[in-house]
User: Which sequence fits this backbone?
């Protein structure tokens, strides 16, 4: 399955990507408007969407961020982080940050390609989602300073329409927003992570049939 997926993705990721169409399905109208007003010089970051086969399904690891005084506190996310001057490019950023955060070391030859860059207004960050494949389930070693928990999800979890719901998210003490999200085993995946995942699901359409 992984070998066939690699062949498919290498071709599909060179073609036109769903981009904003897929992103907008997993956010609200206010966020779409904010994304259109992106800063001319946003911070750059890279995240890794790592796919591997385990128990006869394609799976993806995500992390829960620790609680801290910041805009992404406690959120579900793909491993990744900000670009550093020592990084060759954003692919290297995603691979380095994944190793630092969850202890999984992948090389560039595991990378298949990238999805559409996504602007995140609250942190003024332009994120490049990097796609990589692994033949087997990796051994995870989370960094407790950056990762509260690691969760593994099957692609089928995201494809289940019952797991796509309108959720109320507390942004501040007295402020909540309503937005589409994936709700899987009690975990809410929303915001940029949900938008990137939704684009990847669209990319997989033809492969999954």
Assistant:
């Amino acid at each position: 399955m992984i070998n066939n997926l690699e062949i498919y993705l290498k071709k599909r990721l060179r073609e036109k990507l769903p981009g904003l169409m897929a992103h907008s399905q997993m956010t609200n109208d206010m966020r779409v408007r904010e994304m259109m007003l992106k800063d001319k010089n946003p911070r750059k970051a890279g995240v890794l969407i790592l796919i591997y086969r385990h128990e006869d399904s394609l799976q993806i690891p995500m992390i829960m961020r620790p609680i801290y005084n910041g805009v992404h506190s406690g959120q579900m996310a793909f491993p990744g982080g900000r670009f550093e001057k020592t990084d060759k490019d954003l692919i290297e950023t995603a691979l380095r940050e994944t190793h630092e955060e969850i202890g999984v070391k992948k090389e560039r030859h595991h990378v298949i390609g990238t999805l559409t860059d996504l602007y995140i207004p609250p942190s003024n960050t332009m994120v490049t989602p990097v796609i990589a494949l692994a033949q087997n389930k990796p051994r995870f070693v989370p960094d407790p300073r950056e990762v509260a928990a690691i969760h593994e999800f099957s692609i089928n979890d995201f494809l289940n329409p019952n797991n796509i719901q309108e959720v109320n998210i507390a942004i501040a003490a007295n402020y909540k927003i309503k937005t589409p999200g994936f709700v899987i085993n009690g975990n809410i995946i929303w915001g940029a992570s949900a938008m990137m995942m939704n684009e990847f699901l669209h990319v997989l359409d033809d492969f999954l049939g």
About this structure: The mean pLDDT is 93. The domain at 2-208 is CATH 3.90.79.10 (Nucleoside Triphosphate Pyrophosphohydrolase). The radius of gyration is 16 Å.
